[in-house]
Amino acid sequence: MSQQTAVPRPEPLDRLLRAAEAALEASAPPGSPERAAVDRVFGRVRARTGHIDMAAPKTLPVVAHLPAALDATGGSARVAVAEALREIAPSLGWTRRSSASAEDATFWNGHANAMILGPGAIEERDDLWIGVTLMAPHVSYAEHSHPPEEVYLRLAPGEWWNARMDWTDPGETSLIYNPPGIRHAMRSGDTPFLALWFLPL
Predict the structure, then answer these.
(1) What is the torsion angle, in degrees rounded to the nearest 10, for the CA atoms of residue 152, residue 13, residue 59 and residue 154?
(2) CA atoms lying within 13 Å on the CB side of residue 40
(3) What single-letter DSSP state applies at residue 170?
């Protein structure tokens, strides 16, 4: 019986994942729902490596705000995440939310998402999503919900809302946790918004 050889994860991507896990663990108290979700995501990250494709980037005009958003990241652990994200940024495939309409020009032109691990991502996976959202100043991301729980790691300032929480900016040391199926949204202020999101499927 032949053995399947594990595909090595590219070092820039591995560096981002290690930095993100460290930042999340520093902000998620042991025993909390967000820590349990983080542990599920990174348990799967360590278990295997998916198909890697770092050669098919796509961009959108709003990505011009990415350098400023990365420069705005505060907190030592999160700066390491931002620098690792900056390194892999040329490989990201930025897209608009599928429900976005060009009739809402502010949202259409002012937001972008990129999948890092997951369907159509740099690392193709079907057991988790790790991605990034970027928004220009003064943009509100459409209220939505999805079955998986979700943890957000804020890199640049912004605010989050869900059906159990008023609008809040978690700052440089806290996380946002959305329980499974809850309605939630986010918005930018006077500066670009940047956050990573983590969903165990």
Answers:
(1) 20
(2) 18
(3) -
State the first-to-last Cα distance of the chain, in angstroms, to the nearest integer.
31
Measured CA to CA, the distance from residue 191 to residue 6 in angstroms comes to 42
The whole-angstrom separation of Cα 19 and Cα 70 is 14
The whole-chain average pLDDT of the chain stands at 95
**Predicted model pTM:** 0.95
Report d(CA 63, CA 113) in Å as an integer: 10
Q: Which residues contact 78 (CB under 8 A, 6 or more apart)?
A: 23, 153, 154, 155, 172
Q: What is the pLDDT of residue 6?
A: 55
Helix 11-27 vs helix 33-47: crossing angle, to nearest 10: 160
User: Two tokens at 143?
Assistant: 């209220």
- The pLDDT tens digits for 10-43 are 999 999 999 999 999 999 999 999 999 999 999 9
Q: For residue 13, with 0-12 CB atoms within 10 Å meaning exposed, 13-18 middle and 19 or more buried, which class applies? A: buried
Domains, the chain: 50-200 (2.60.120.10)
DSSP characters over 44-102: HHHH---EE--S--B--GGGGGHHHHHHT--SHHHHHHHHHHHHHGGG-BEE--TT--T
**Distance between CA atoms of 81 and 86, rounded to whole angstroms?**
9
* Predicted local confidence at residue 74, as pLDDT: 92
